[in-house]
């Protein structure tokens, strides 16, 4: 069952379902949507010749929008179905040839019992062209028996004549009616010994240990081949043929209880008992002169339906609800009417049940088809099952590989997350270090600025604490030298200090300062005027003597004649008064 559900996915979701009673053909193009069957196109053809009926049906469906082609299944009264008892355990199936031999032996007996069903007289009665009494009268004439109606005295005139010719000659039927039944008979009657069978297991037989019920269907191989060719000429592939009655069981919901189904057709009722979804009894009641209600009542009592058994009714007649109400009233039991929105006069419960079965929408054992190409071998021997098993192994392998890849991916992702976490930690540490380095740089810059500020303050302090006092002492010394050296014969013209940015003049090589290593650090240029040369020379000497105690030295003294104040003739005197300081070993002056 599990494999059937798996294989149902491979079945086509669109199917042409046809049904014939031998004198008309109904067809519906259906499609499965989940568990629901939807009818896309439908048509009914009242044509006796089934070859022409199939052609007219496909053309009508195409005119309704059907694209044509695809697969089809057919319900036909020529397919006989029954429940047989076989000593074969479904869990231990026989080989296909063995099962074929067992089933064909049972099916041949069933076919022999139903040969009379397709006789010409039976068909004429089923169509309402003749009564059973008229059929018996014609058969009596064929056999040389006296005619109860009288009028015929020479029996040899009617002995060994064809049934149809006698019925027509007696005025019971018309030629057109005879031809219609003869044509319909060609599509119903078995005309060879070769039959095609199929079977499906049911439950065990309660009172016979080791014996199991098997649902069997069979049809003539030549008739199956004829239908196959007719559909093939219209570009449609016939997949299987189903029995006309009993397939409505495919519409029953799954149940673990015992239930009975009554399926009605004109002049026929099929009664089926199911226990836990498996068939335990199956009987057909045929009588064209009885109503559906009478046949249902006979079937109900013949099946000995228990009060606790659910009763279902499947009727393709538009008065199915009325029939259910009559059964409720007369039997005083609950009657469940099988109903589906898709059912109408062109789609019977049997067709809908076959659609569910063929498209994988019902339990596989509810009905059985006769497959084109013969029955399938046991599940373990089927190519598609092996392919499905191989596909399952491959899927398991792929699933294992996928799981392994997922695990590896998970491990890689975990490792990647760990690396990313470490990288984030390192990045955060780097940011902290960079921030600390930046803070250190800022602190260094701040310290440098503080040092520069300290140097500036120190230079300012040195300027106020050392340079200004030294300058004051120097100026005081210069003024003291001038005070002690200037006489009445000398007129001071100017006193100029040398720019500190001007490099100091080198000392004369033979001077005392050059010899003791002192250097010139300050310089004043003195300009004066003397009334006489002697006064000028005396002034120079006195300046040299007065400057020595102040660590000053007179250099570059010059005396030359020139105009003085008030344009008087005299001598101009220029000299430089320099401040000397001892130098350290590096040549730089020592700090005072």
Lay out the secondary structure.
Blueprint: H1 2-7, E1 14-20, E2 25-33, E3 36-45, H2 50-63, E4 71-76, E5 80-86, H3 96-113, H4 120-126, H5 132-142, H6 163-169, H7 175-186, E6 195-204, E7 212-220, H8 221-233, E8 237-243, E9 258-265, E10 268-275, E11 278-286, H9 292-302, E12 310-315, H10 320-331, E13 335-337, H11 349-358, E14 370-371, H12 383-485, E15 490-497, H13 512-516, E16 518-530, H14 533-547, E17 552-563, E18 569-582
Parallel strand pairs: 1-4, 4-8, 9-12, 12-13
Antiparallel strand pairs: 1-2, 2-3, 5-7, 6-7, 8-14, 9-10, 10-11, 15-16, 16-18, 17-18
Helix pairs in contact: 2-8, 9-10, 12-14
Mind explaining what this structure looks like?
This protein is of the alpha+beta class and 592 residues long. Helix content is 41%, strand content 25%. It has helices at residues 2-7, 50-63, 96-113, 120-126, 132-142, 163-169, 175-186, 221-233, 292-302, 320-331, 349-358, 383-485, 512-516, 533-547; strands at 14-20, 25-33, 36-45, 71-76, 80-86, 195-204, 212-220, 237-243, 258-265, 268-275, 278-286, 310-315, 335-337, 370-371, 490-497, 518-530, 552-563, 569-582. Helix 2 packs parallel to helix 8, helix 9 (292-302) crosses helix 10 (320-331) and helix 12 crosses helix 14 (533-547). The radius of gyration is 67 Å and the shape is rod-shaped. The chain starts with a helix and ends in a 10-residue tail after the last strand.
């Amino acid at each position: 069952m599990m494999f059937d559900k798996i294989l149902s996915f491979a079945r086509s979701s669109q199917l042409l379902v046809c049904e014939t009673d031998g004198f008309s053909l109904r067809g519906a193009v259906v499609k499965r949507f989940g568990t629901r069957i939807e009818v896309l196109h439908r048509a009914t053809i009242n044509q006796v010749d089934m070859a022409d009926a199939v052609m007219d049906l496909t053309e009508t469906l195409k005119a309704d929008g059907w694209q044509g082609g695809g697969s089809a299944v057919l319900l036909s009264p020529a397919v006989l179905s029954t429940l047989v008892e076989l000593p074969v355990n479904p869990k231990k199936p026989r080989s296909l040839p063995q099962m074929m031999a067992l089933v064909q032996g049972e099916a041949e007996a069933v076919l022999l019992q139903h040969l009379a069903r397709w006789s010409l007289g039976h068909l004429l009665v089923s169509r309402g062209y003749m009564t059973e009494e008229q059929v018996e009268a014609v058969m009596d004439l064929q056999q040389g028996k006296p005619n109860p109606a009288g009028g015929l005295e020479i029996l040899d005139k009617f002995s060994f004549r064809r049934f149809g010719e006698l019925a027509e000659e007696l005025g019971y039927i018309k030629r057109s009616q005879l031809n219609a039944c003869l044509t319909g008979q060609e599509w119903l009657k078995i005309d060879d010994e070769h039959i095609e069978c199929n079977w499906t297991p049911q439950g065990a037989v309660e009172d016979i240990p080791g014996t199991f019920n098997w649902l069997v269907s069979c049809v003539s191989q030549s008739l199956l081949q004829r239908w196959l060719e007719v559909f093939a000429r219209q570009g449609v592939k016939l997949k299987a043929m189903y029995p006309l009655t009993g397939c409505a069981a495919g519409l029953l919901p799954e149940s673990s209880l015992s239930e009975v189904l009554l399926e009605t057709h004109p002049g026929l009722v099929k009664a089926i008992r199911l226990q836990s979804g498996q068939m335990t009894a199956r009987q057909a009641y045929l009588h064209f002169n009885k109503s559906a209600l009478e046949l249902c009542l006979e079937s109900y009592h013949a099946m000995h339906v228990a009060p606790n058994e659910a009763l279902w009714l499947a009727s393709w007649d538009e008065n199915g609800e009325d029939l259910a109400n009559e059964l409720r009233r007369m039997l005083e039991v609950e009657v469940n009417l099988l109903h589906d929105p898709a059912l109408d006069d062109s789609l019977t419960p049997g067709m809908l049940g076959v659609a569910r079965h063929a498209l994988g929408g019902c339990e596989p054992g509810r009905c059985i088809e006769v497959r084109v190409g013969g029955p399938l071998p046991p599940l373990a021997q089927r190519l598609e099952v092996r392919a499905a098993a191989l596909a399952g192994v491959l899927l398991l392998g792929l699933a294992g590989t996928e799981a392994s890849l997922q695990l590896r991916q998970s491990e890689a992702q975990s490792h990647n997350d760990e690396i990313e976490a470490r990288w984030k930690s390192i990045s955060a540490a780097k940011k902290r270090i960079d921030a600390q380095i930046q803070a250190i740089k800022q602190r260094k810059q701040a310290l440098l600025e503080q040092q520069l500020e300290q140097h500036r303050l120190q230079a300012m302090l040195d300027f106020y604490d050392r340079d200004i006092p030294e300058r004051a002492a120097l100026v005081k010394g210069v003024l003291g030298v001038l005070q002690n050296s200037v006489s009445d014969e000398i007129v001071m013209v100017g006193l100029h200090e040398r720019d500190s940015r001007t490099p100091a003049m080198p000392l004369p090589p033979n001077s005392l300062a050059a010899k003791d290593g002192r250097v010139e650090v300050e310089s004043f240029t003195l300009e004066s005027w003397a009334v006489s040369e002697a006064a000028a020379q005396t002034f120079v000497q006195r300046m040299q003597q007065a400057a020595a105690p102040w660590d000053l030295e007179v250099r570059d003294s010059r005396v030359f004649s020139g105009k003085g104040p008030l344009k008087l003739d005299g001598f101009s005197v220029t000299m430089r008064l320099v401040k000397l300081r001892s130098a350290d070993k590096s040549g730089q002056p020592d700090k005072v």
